[in-house]
Write a structure and sequence with these properties.
Blueprint lengths: L4 E2 L23 H19 L20 E9 L5 H5 L4 E10 L6 H14 L9 H4 L2 E8 L3 E2 L11 E6 L2 E5 L2 H6 L3 H12 L11 E5 L1 E5 H7 L1
Antiparallel strand pairs: 1-3, 2-3, 2-4, 4-9, 5-8, 6-7, 6-8
Helix pairs in contact: 1-3
């Protein structure tokens, strides 16, 4: 079975926090989003506390199809909030882990549980999440569409995520990445090549370029909507 992988930039400070524009038609309902986010939290807590974790499929339909998904964890804190955040009642968010499945390896609800646990305990950039931190985590999920071939000139910044591959080398960047960094299309293509350890112009040839879209939602979105 595929193994969840780390896919964000090497430096934790480069974590991307700018949300994408809302899709024209959201695939997942508010209830489905709540269930998936709850699964992520419960999967993490089940490792840290003596509590059972059910691997059974949710009763709500639409969550058992195999899908790629990336789980991003943020640690919420009041102590590091800057003045601007304090004035707006916002809490400081610090990246705490991000891993995922680029391909549809297992049912979505299981993929969320597995990537949440991996982000909390197996992201090599961080120490494992502690029991105290688990209660202060914010979860963000990026559910991926199926991959499809794309020509470089068809890539839309802010809409498409990219996967580039050449032999055993593969690099993936989520749609949020170029938005936060202010990259244009060519810079996005080059940085995806960089992620794969390929020459920056490998997207021209001979590497294989594929794209995907992502529906992104987080705890904060559900709280606002609810």
């Amino acid at each position: 079975m595929s193994k969840p992988s780390e896919i964000l930039p090497e430096k934790p400070s480069e974590i991307l926090t700018t949300p994408l524009a809302a899709p024209l038609s959201a695939e997942f309902s508010l209830e489905q989003r709540r269930i998936l986010l709850r699964i992520a939290h419960e999967a993490i807590l089940a490792v840290l506390e003596p509590r059972p974790f059910s691997d059974a499929a949710p009763l709500v339909a639409g969550l058992s199809e195999p899908r790629g998904v990336f789980t991003t964890l943020y640690l919420l804190s009041d102590s590091k909030a800057d003045l601007a955040n304090e004035l707006h009642g916002e809490r400081h968010r610090e990246l705490r882990g991000c891993v995922g499945y680029a391909l549809p390896a297992v049912p979505l609800y299981r993929a969320v549980a597995e990537t949440a646990r991996a982000a909390a305990f197996d992201d090599s950039r961080f120490m494992p999440v502690t029991r105290e931190e688990a209660r202060e985590l914010e979860v963000s999920l990026s559910v991926l569409s199926r991959l499809f071939p794309i020509q470089p000139e068809a890539v839309e910044v802010g809409r498409h995520g990219l996967l580039i591959s050449d032999g055993a080398r593969r690099g993936l960047l989520l749609p949020q990445v170029p938005v936060e960094h202010g990259w244009d299309r060519e810079a996005f293509l080059e940085q995806t090549c960089r992620k794969a350890g390929l020459p920056l112009d490998a997207w021209r040839k001979p590497a294989t370029l594929e794209a995907f879209t992502a529906e992104v939602f987080a705890d904060a979105d559900i709280e606002v909507s609810g």
